[in-house]
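User: Predict the structure for this protein chain, please.
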Amino acid sequence: MPPSPIVGIVGPCCSGKSVLARALRERGYLARDIAQEHSFAPRMWQVIGQAEVLIFLDVSYSIAQQRRWMNWQPADLAEEQRRLRHAREHCDLYLNTDALTQEQVLEHVLALLADSG
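Assistant: Here is the predicted structure, written as structure tokens:
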């Protein structure tokens, strides 16, 4: 069996990055939750994360607040989105997680990984 590609996961806070990374690792994938939303380095996912497959998880402000209350405003999410623009433009899979369960997100990603060999 060929080695697993390095799966990088980026997205704003509360989008489900750590949950997805954990689920992928439990299935034997090399998955990294790349906390790029806190960085000013637009290519962090390539340099530090060394992602070969890039997953972008997105979330709206209202759903993020339902998932985990944080002391932030819509402008803070907009800033995270700005910082993530390069990753979003280069991702292999974009998922808005607002209406998806954790299992559905995982299914989408596993389908992509199966298709990419």
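The chain has one domain: 6-115.
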